[in-house]
Amino acid sequence: MGVRLMVVDDHRLLAEALASALKLRGHRVLAAAAPAAGAAELVISRAPEVCLLGTATPAEPGMFDPVVKIKRERPQVAVVVLGPVPSPRGIAAAFAAGASGYVRHDERIEGVERAIMKARAGEAAVAPQLLQGAFSELLNPAAQPDDEGQRLLQMLTPREVEVLVRVADGEDTRLIAAGMGIAPSTARTHVQRVLMKLGVGSRLEAAALAARTGLLDRAERPAAAYANDTETQPGPESPEE
Questions:
Q1: How far apart are CA 7 and CA 13, in angstroms?
Q2: I need a surface site. Which of 35, 71, 159, 209 has the fewest CB within 10 A?
Q3: Is the Cβ–Cβ distance between 104 and 83 less than 8 Å?
Q4: How far apart are CA 183 and CA 111, in angstroms?
Q5: Complete DSSP assignment for 107-145
Q6: How far apart are CA 44 and CA 64, in angstroms?
Q7: In this structure, how many other beta carbons lie within 10 angstroms of the beta carbon of residue 89?
Q8: Distance between CA 74 and CA 207 in Å, rounded?
């Protein structure tokens, strides 16, 4: 039997892609909403069986306040957090707030579905390897943990970072071109460079990788930050027909 659920994530493209995949598997997805800041009110008003709540920064203070509010107002709703490779603090914060599970952003749809079913049944929905990894990190903390998001960010030019943010927001080539004031052909070239540098084959994969590593949260900064972009900019171009 399908589950009545909601998908809430700051990045619309990820939320809508996951919602579509779950609908194809027979579940009733009530909403795919962004941003997560309004998740609590939306979930409380719709009262699904399960809420999938996306976050790129699970260890950030206050990140799971929406979970606390949901569980206070709708204790019957099971909340499963979708996030990056978590730190022990992130997992602890999610469950302390009342979450029923934690699933990585790059988990296969079958794994997400298993977590949904376990959460609806009142069970803890977290992969054993995540718990093992958390305990391992607690027992053997890395002196200087590798920051994959920062590493990936350093591979991209400021203009490519802006393109990646727009891709994650669900913009197509023409919207990217219009928003950046460039020709569609130039926008396509930037997108291809981003995919190549990140080592992925599609826009959806790029968005998922950026969300999982926290790259998007680091990237979202005022447009003025591009003022010092040293990348050689193309000359005036006429829009494509």
A1: 11
A2: 35
A3: yes
A4: 40
A5: --HHHHHHHHHHHHTT--EE-HHHHHHHHHHHHS--SS-
A6: 15
A7: 14
A8: 31
Give, in order, the Cα–Cα distances in Å from 116 to each of 2, 28, 80, 91, 140. Answer: 10, 12, 7, 17, 31
Q: What is the CA radius of gyration of the chain?
A: 19
Contacts of 193 (CB under 8 A, 6+ apart): 160
Q: What is the pLDDT of residues 193-206, one digit of tens each?
A: 999 988 888 898 88
Phi-psi label, residue 201: left if phi above 0, alpha if psi -120 to 50, beta otherwise: alpha
Give me 92's structure tokens: 């602890």
At 95-137, the pLDDT tens digits run 889 999 999 888 889 999 999 999 999 998 887 777 666 656 5
Instruction: For tokens 């998001």, name the residue.
Output: 149
Instruction: Report how far apart, in Å, the C-alpha atoms of 84 and of each of 94, 107, 215 are.
Output: 13, 10, 11
pTM of the model: 0.57
CA neighbor of 14 nearest in space, from 103, 75, 86: 103
